[in-house]
Design brief:
2 domains, 364 residues, transferase, globular, EC 2.5.1.10, Polyprenyl_synt_CS, Farnesyl Diphosphate Synthase, dimethylallyltranstransferase activity
Amino acid sequence: METNSNGCNLNRKDPKVKRLKTSGTELEEFDAVFTDLVEGLVNQGKQHKEISAAVDWFKEVCLYNVPFGKKNRGLSVVMTYKRINTDATESELRQARVLGWCVEWLQAFFLVADDVMDKSITHRGKPCWYKKEGVGLIAINDSFYMENCVYAILKRHFKQEDYYTDIVDLFHETTMQTVTGQCLDLITAPETHINFDEFTTERYTAIVKWKTAFYSFYLPVALAMYMAGIKDTATHTAAKTILLKMGTFFQIQDDYLDCYGDPEVIGKIGTDIQDNKCSWLIVQALAKVAPEQRQILQENYGQPEEDKVLKVKAVYKDLDLEQLYRDYEEESYRQLLKDIQSFQGQLPKEVFTDFASKIYKRQK
């Protein structure tokens, strides 16, 4: 029987493995941990009475921004750990849930700052944090706070573990990767001017890999791997290769939904066209356009006026980008399944198929 370095069962024919899925009960267990973590942060801050006003403010920051997403990244830590360690104790599962919430706090840090930079209006179906009355650019400091919550939680719950430095280093590395990707995104598509020469497939792929794929896909799995005692470089490298491809697949879906998704379903109003984003749609359009269509895009892309946005979307329709996306989705999914089948390492392949099944043909 195949095991990991901690002796955990990795038998891929185990019926418990085949049936594993995110249940309503697991979501409830995951959510219950959040309340405890917030109270822990509040109690730590309240030890110093002179900062009680800041502690109360930060509590509201966390309650508004952290718990209301889809929680896919955080839950993925738990589900991956369950795949690796099919005999996990409740104590171990709670630790996995704490790690999952650390990913959600990191996500909230990124999103609050990103919304300010992108001038977004809504997120997760409600006004962006910086748009709330009395917040404004205080949101920048609030994003810093949420990043530091990650390390406060890790220190409190994992300092005694032999993998503590591994997960702290992983969070630092992932944050550096993500802010690097954000920088690429911002300098490729500045507000001041439009330069379609920068909107290449190579640049787009780099932005997606560094801004989204590392923290959304590799981070949750790597955290579960470290917690389960899987540290060998070969397994991490092989897993990362597949997970980064999934991250690209996921971001292209996001770009498509930004333009064609229902705001009521996806929880935000898409602004990629107005924001001059180097999105998959504009990159594909520029590769297909006739000169007169490119001129229309040049004159209207990156502009806030609704009539200009509609002109860009009209070019997208003429180029049939919706069908191009559907073809891409099918082909990319088939390739992902091939990559999963050929994976070699100390992980059950169901770790990857769990991700694939969640993101394939998603609507939000």
